[in-house]
Amino acid sequence: MSMFSTGILVLTSPLHILPLRIAPVLTSAAQVVERTLYVHLHPGLNLSTGGQVRPVYIPPVVDLCALISRLYSNAADICAHLDVRVLLSNVRAQSVALSGSSGPFPTPQTLSHSPEVVLTDYPIQDSGQSSLVTQCLQKYARHCYICNPTLSSVLLYPRLKEVEEDDDRGGSGAQLKPLETFSDVVVGGTFDRLHGAHKTLLNISCLMANRRFVIGVCDQELLKKKVLKELIEPYYQRVQKLQDFLNDVKPSLKYEIVPLSDPFGPSISDPELQCIVVSEETRKGGEAVNRKRVENGLAELVLYEIQLLKDAHHADIEEEKISSSSLRTRMLGTLLKHPSPQPDLPLDPYVIGLTGGSGSGKSSIAHRLEALGAVRIDCDQLGHEAYLPGTSAYHKVVQEFGPDILNEDKTINRRVLGGKVFGNQERLRALTDIVWPEIALLVKKRIKQAKEQGKRVCVVDAAVLLEAGWTYLVHEVWVATIPEEEAVKRIVQRDGVKEEDALRRLKSQWPNAQLIEHANVVLCTLWEPDITQRQVLKAWHLLQQRIQKRPEEIRPSP
Prior knowledge:
ATP binding, kinase, Rossmann fold, coenzyme a biosynthesis, single chain, nucleotidyltransferase
């Protein structure tokens, strides 16, 4: 069967049956759609009438919240590669629905991605119905949404017959309990790399809001304690993804997305807000909001609590719930962005530039890569070689800084030389302008030697890789990162210096965020050594795949 980039799934099963069907339906849909899957709910829809089927308003009921949560939870387990979005334009409270007479779709809704295929769980009794149901399904989808002109359709029901017995055991369902809705609803969060738990929170909030939905997005101070905070998407990018998602889900709402520099934002000062949607772990924050509102003379908000989504694929260092921090952890060792073209750089051997701040564990990673078969080029060692008597750098340094930097045996006293440049940016620049080009020449020499030995991968272990401008020597930049407070502890323990001296050393280097801006791959040594080893193995295996995928004509001959 052909694969489509974007599809829309029309669910017609009764609400009491849908929870049983979600998993097999998503499994089948994932075999047809590969990027974005919109979900449109219309329980009880009859697609075999042969006539024009019109969408109707679906009343918001408590069971819908559970269904939405179940759907995103199943999607995370079954088809995590899909961007699943539950659409709510046709879900409206009866009192609100009566105010408009043209139905939920007076004109077809424009989605962020135009559906190329429409799918449904509608049950067909015999194959003779297929053509009729397919035509009716396409008309229905086009009435609701602007679709691709060549819209295809897929009936999933033949693949779902194995769950019919479970459906029968589900019962007919009791009277559905209406969901309390509110004019104005508020939520808050980081919303990094929008995932199923975020979507559950946002969808249920949209379900409960009739007029306005306020979303506070953590920024600045609130991000400082986050795991791998340097990998958090920029604020503007998170906001753009929120806007795209929300405008698809329920375009009739007024959305206000605001930055949060404190835990409360507008939730403690906006008199029109009526409800705040929280999770199990953020309920205390919601209660704190209400205490502040009372202090400010405002009515308390209704706290609506949703369940956390469990992450069936979480690793030992990850949270059991679906979370952004876990997703950021999984990015370690993967290719974050494609390498910049280096037309003047020989493709054989493939050169990794590995950098990181003091205490980041950069050299331990380099040794691990060396154990896997890479040639390690230690730029710190090459720096010592560049100062040896008789080298070009030796003569230039002595001429620039004077003979008083020499020991009795005519070697350069690095401590004396360091004293001449410490705290003097101009003199430090004079020194690096001499030494860095010489180290770069030595790196080139080591790479050439590796090529002659038939080596496929070199790792340039260089703390100043980026500051020195050596990226022209490497195909990819890998960055080792560690939180600043952990780096300080390591430096103090390793070098026997005071905390303030360790911190001063770190402040003189590029910060993690600046290094990661240039990174193709990021690794973190915060956890146990075996966790670091797993990251390195993943990075190494993915690197081998990238090297293998190079066009045949540029691969090194065996």
